[in-house]
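Chapter review: from sequence to fold.
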Amino acid sequence: MTAPEIIEILARGGTVGLSLILGLLFVREARASLAARLGIVFAVGVAAYALVSSNTISDALGILNPVLNLLAIPTAVFFWWFATALFDDAFRWHHWRMIPIGLVALAAGLHFMTSPGSALSVGAALAWQVVNIAMMAHVVVQAIRDWPGDLIAPRRWCRIAFAGLIACAGMTISVLEARYAANGLPDWVFHGHGYVLFALALLFAGWLVTAPAQLFQTCTPSPAGSATPDGVSPEDRPLARRLEQAMKDGHYREPGLTVGSLASHLNTREHRLRRLINQGLGFRNFAAFLNSHRLADARRLLADPDRAHDQVLTIALDLGYGSIAPFNRAFRAETGTTPTLYRRTALSRL
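The token string follows.
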């Protein structure tokens, strides 16, 4: 056995150990957090993948190899589940989220059950990797898109450093798998693969160990426009009063309002405002904070008979939404119904 092979095996063993430790760390928060429960699944998948993706280790696993392969094959799907649940505070489990795992299982089954190098085997491998790349790309888009409004500091770092690295590494592996689908991966890919897995597992383990419990805990936001003394520290109360006044003045209606622009309006540093809205008022992201004010106003306007002839789009734009679609999504998530049905029911009671 060569020195690179020995180092690769050690790296993969370290990845397995770190992944299992990550799984145990997720167990701490599993009862209250769906993201943590999905994190356990992802950690187990990574541990299995680190073993079976090495020819040397895979051959030594014997009867355990097929079992571990079942856990390793959908690892990209597990990552997609975990990352989207972690980054999206409105994440809900739906059965359609099982579709990618079905596609991956079908493609992987065709790849392994047909003749190596055949057109069907290569085509199935390509389809498998395309699904993986699509999920990784979705994680990257979500991580970057929602980064500015994320109020939880360790999760903001995670969006770029973790999601970006993991997703880009995963996409690179998928591209290489697709590139060498017909002839098999060269040895240098296996060695580099093992080193990268260990580095990422070590990075993520270090991040999770130091991440505060609030990363997975749900918050109870204060009522719209209210800076509760119990939630706001004494040094932040003057800023909380200025924020409350700005909201009463309708500043939340400004289109494209960001944490940075609101901080400038309040003449404070952005990180202080983020801390106040998150730790003081109980909001995990800036969009939820704005929606708490905008939707309270929307319910009032939709129930106002004097505004009965105003189009819903007009009301949405007046409240600062850029289009009708985000307004409808936020309103439905808040009330369980559409703005049109809400208006109809409210006006029928008059």
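Two observations follow directly from the output. The mean pLDDT is 87. The two ends are 83 Å apart (CA to CA).
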